[in-house]
Specification:
Blueprint lengths: L1 E7 L2 E8 L2 E4 L11 H10 L4 H9 L3 E4 L4 E3 L6 E6 L3 H10 L5 H7 L4 E7 L3 E2 L5 E3 L6 E2 L2 E7 L5 E9 L1 E2 H6 L4 H5 L5 E9 L10 E8 L2 E9 L7 H9 L8 E4 L17 E6 L3 E9 L2
Parallel strand pairs: 6-17, 8-14, 9-19
Antiparallel strand pairs: 1-2, 1-5, 1-14, 2-3, 3-4, 6-7, 10-13, 11-12, 11-17, 12-14, 15-16, 15-18, 18-19
Helix pairs in contact: 3-4
Bound molecules: 2,5-dioxopentanoic acid and magnesium ion.
The site of 2,5-dioxopentanoic acid (DO4) has 13 residues, from β6 and α3.
Length: about 290
Amino acid sequence: MKLCRFEVSGHKSLGILDGNFIVDLSSSNPEIFSEVDALVSAAREKEMSIGELIRIYVKGARRIGCEETRLRIPLVPTEVWGAGVTYLRSREAREIETRTKGLYDQIYSDERPEIFLKGSGKRCVGPEEPIGIRSDSVWTVPEPELALLLDWDANIIGYTIANDVSARDIEGQNPLYLPQAKIFKGCCAIGPVITTQDEIANPLSLQIEMRVLRSGKSVFEGKVSTSMMKRKVTELVQFLKRDNILFGCTILMTGTGIVPPDDFSLKHDDVVEIDVEKIGRLRNPVIKLT
Ligand code: DO4
Ligand code: MG
């Protein structure tokens, strides 16, 4: 099921996206289906998966036409973490951009993956909301990634799409500048839905596609399969949770396997579209921050 968070007349609730309709779960139970954290708590209390709990309430819930609503970010996660250099393409691109040669070759082949804090979910945006380009970056790219939704015990409860927008010039200048390359206003887009864990038997067999549109025309297109990822998703989760605390529902991005050519940078007014099989399309306009 495709869990979404939608808004009607300023009120946000959880629903299931079903073609051109949204099944309004909050019409069956407004408390459980107010936010993803409340749903996850209720499912744990009843010792059910979120999919099982949704199935109980979906019957009898009212249906609303998508045109009457607006999809919002599916949740504002407490934290967003990123895995880096999990695809060969990312390793190649990082080695070209960095002044610290050999660093990313090592990260790619080491037992320990690169896992970094992308920051608070409060800097994330949802579908159709603007992602940012830092005012001090001239080389910023979108990074289309499969993202895991984890509960506070680091169980994978769903999958979504993330755009790990990154300033490659700042990242390449010095590896210690990574937080500045990764964390700024609108540095991450998430959505449009969370596909429940039971619907994706193998997260390492999904097609990811990205397009960047400029004045309506495609200026970059790329695709990759998550089967090209070097790490298993469970391996990334194990490293994130080791001796760590997750404070609520958390997003873990699994890394990018699509990197535009080195002379490509996002521009103000571009639009980025990311499609991930079994999840949907995440679409965001781009703004240059001032
Ligand atoms: O340190 C670089 C981060 C790389 C990254 O975000 C990715 O591979 O997706
Ligand atoms: Mg990334």
